Amino acid sequence: MASPTPEFVTYLISELSGIFPVNACRFFGGWQLQSDNKQFAIVMGGTLFFRVDDALRDEMQKLGCRPFSYVKQGTQVLVPKYMSAPDGVLDELDLLRTWAARVIAGT
User: CA 44, CA 3: separation in Å to the nearest integer?
Assistant: First the structure.
């Protein structure tokens, strides 16, 4: 039996589907968001992480975004191709859509 989609993921799908097709599916311990069969974000532990290229990663780091990380055998592993959404993105729909569109354009 498939686990239900968390409310936060459902919210993201609903809001982003207004500008491009979005679907979600399980991804390790969280969820991945896809548009046209391309992953553009993941949700892990209730945090939205965008999939980024080097240029966007540099910009996001300057904004205080952090890479996705997890602990494996007592060591923290950083996954810099996924960066947390900038502050305020989830509070303003236009900003969320702008960032998502930028990420999708780069995937």
Answer: 15
Determine contact, residues 13/82, Cβ cutoff 8 Å.
Answer: no
* Per-residue CA distances from 102 to 5, 30, 45, 50, 95 (Å): 25, 22, 23, 10, 11
Q: Yes or no: is domain 7-106 CATH 3.30.1460.30?
A: yes
Reported as a single tens digit per residue, the pLDDT across 52-71 is 999 999 999 999 999 999 99
Whole-model pTM: value is: 0.91
Degrees (nearest 5) of the Cα angle 81, 82, 84?
A: 145
Q: What type of residue is 56?
A: L
Domain edges within the chain: 7-106
